Amino acid sequence: MKLLCGAALLLLFCAAACAQQSSCICEKNKRVTNCRPLNGSCWCDSVGSGVSVNCGTLTSKCLLMKAEMTGSKSGRREKPKDAFENTDGLYDPECENTGVFKAKQCNGTTCWCVNTAGVRRTDKHDADLKCNRLVRTTWIIIEMKHAERNAPLTTESLNKFFKETITSRYMLDGRYISNVLYEKPYITIDLKQDSSDKSSGDVDIADVAYYFEKDVKGDSIFHNNNGLNISIDNEELHFEKTVVYYVDEIAPEFSMKSLTAGLIAVIVVVIVAIVAGIVVLVLTRRRKGKYVKAEIKEMNEMHRGLNA
Question: Fewest Cβ atoms nearer than 10 Å: which of 48, 116, 144, 303?
């Protein structure tokens, strides 16, 4: 009986050990499934696409967006306000097997072209739209506005924190961090990466910016929502607004049709105000002219009366 119990315990221990060996945790991506160790790294299937990703590095932005849309199909569809600001928000992207965005993205019968960051760079057209190639985003500008704080930030501490964080947490080579600028209350981080400079093993600046933005906004992609604690000069830093801008190697192809309804409304109001001002000016001058003529006529009559 004791031998049977011992054998049963041994089997349970072996089963648990095997199960532990056949699974792993993807520390850099919480939106994965079917994780398993392979050649010393943890590999998992990205949710929504099933593409295998190496958890030892950042997952591509396209696969992350795909996974996020799988969990929630209520993506924001705001219209763009700036050529390089991602105001379209979240959408369900089409990705290549390598994880990069397909140059042409569609939502039903409406299609548009995107850059390597997945940001729309053309007007929206029908399904006949041609996107010849995926245009590379070579410069990403991350602009953050921090809340009021007790002490002013020191430029040296700010530079050191963000450069060390981006290189260690997001695995970006330091040569791609071109600038960290502080103009109270704005912090601007410039990431530049030409296709000629990027090595095959380097993470892409578009992926880094996406991870960073999610961290700052409290929706970390890392396992267990392990968010980013931004503390500079022993004081935690909070942000009121974060905006990411994208600069492509080829200029975007927007037309006047891409103007938002709000901008068009502002233009209309300005035009109406100008027209109204002109009308008031003309009427005022006419009334003034009539008043002057009447005054001259009365003076002439008074002179004639005196002369008589």
Answer: 303
